[in-house]
Amino acid sequence: MRSIRRALLVVIATAAALLASAGPASAHGGVVGADLRVAASLGERELTVIIRRVGAVPGPLRVDVVNHADSPGGTLRVAAAPQNNLPGAGNELRLTDGGGSAGTALDVDRIGAWELWVDDGRETARIPFVVPGDVTPAWERVTTGGYTAAGGLLLAALAAAAFGRWSWPPLVLGGGAAAAVVAAVTAGLLSSGLPVEAEIDPATGLPSTARTQAAARPHVDLLADAALVAGQRSPIDLRLVDGGTGRPVDDLVVHHDALVHLVVLGPGGQFAHLHPVRTAPGEFRVWFRPASGGEHRVHAELERWGGGVQLVDAAVPATGPAVPEPVAGGPGERDAGGMTARIEASDLVAGEPSVLAAEFGDGAPVRDLQPWLGMAGHLITAGPDGTLGHVHAMAGASAVTPDETVAAGGPRVEFVYTFATPGRHRLWFQVERDYRVVTVPVEVDVAASEDGS
């Protein structure tokens, strides 16, 4: 009898230890979706719209809008509606000058594809998002169920040991608790090696394997229309057309916190990194003030659902005199948005990876950089042949949480990039501080490799 009681205590102690050491399972495992951040160049404002994940349907939808420092304050109207439906009156959201954030709550009553309408009184951005169904992965069901069953069995075992007349019921119950915990822990440990769960279909909000099975999407044709005048802010209208069907492309997904990253390069060296707003299916608009007359190249980086990232471009003319930008200068130290930026870029050879860095200070090392577009920093490159590159800061000690309300980055931001061609390249380092995007232009010379490429 004594040996049975000793075995019973060992079983119960083991189950209790496993329960105490096991971490709690996530309630949704990410299936309900994460917060969605979307950069939007709406009118004269540079915004980041944050659509918080929905915990239950029907339920509240929290929307926060970050206004950047160089954008004016004012009132926006924010509303949400299922796709192909008109929204109700929505809520007013007041933005302050000088940067910062404001938020409001809307109601959602069904899963599926939705649009967030953000209206500045002149134009309306229609941002697609999905309210997904709450579908728990199989491994998570096993993990959660195992912990729950183990807890119940353990309590029953303790009660049986305290009040029961026989020794075998607590032993059986304790053994069941230990087995349930082992099953739960095993499922959690093996989860990373299990087949990928079905992704959420953006049209239905339900699990689908369409993304993993889909073939590469056809190339996107970019059609740009604008009547630009040097020194004046004017709209650039963009149409995205499927290269295979000629139909509007309306299956973009958020890629690095934007539906479309648009880089505008002017003939005199002018640079702008903008994020056009979706005004209708396949149609986008952004406002731009050219500094010079002449042809401007617009490069759009985007990603289609079920496909990969594409970089497409077009040209728009601007009337007015040609005004060259000041020469950017080479690596070294220069003023940058109230800071000093020390640019490091040496021994650059075409076809070989290079480390490029920007280190910021203001009398002391700057340690309050904010992430922009989910990254600690961005680097845009333009080669002598017109090719464009867009890379992000290396992860490491300077990496920060991808939320603009967190200011803990810096002072050093590093990038790894391989220049495809020799010659003179233009670079633009971009970071954010105090809700202001700071751009540091640089020109570098890239040597040819030893084999002449």
Automatic annotation (TrEMBL):
Keyword terms: Membrane, Signal, Transmembrane, Transmembrane helix
Keyword Transmembrane: yes
PROSITE patterns to which the protein is assigned, alphabetical: TAT
Transmembrane segments: 145-164, 171-190
Source species, domain of life: Bacteria
Key word Membrane present: yes
UniProt xrefs under InterPro entries: TAT_signal (IPR006311)
Residues in the signal sequence: 1-27
UniProt protein name: Secreted protein
Gene source species: Pseudonocardia hierapolitana
Taxonomic classification: Bacteria, Bacillati, Actinomycetota, Actinomycetes, Pseudonocardiales
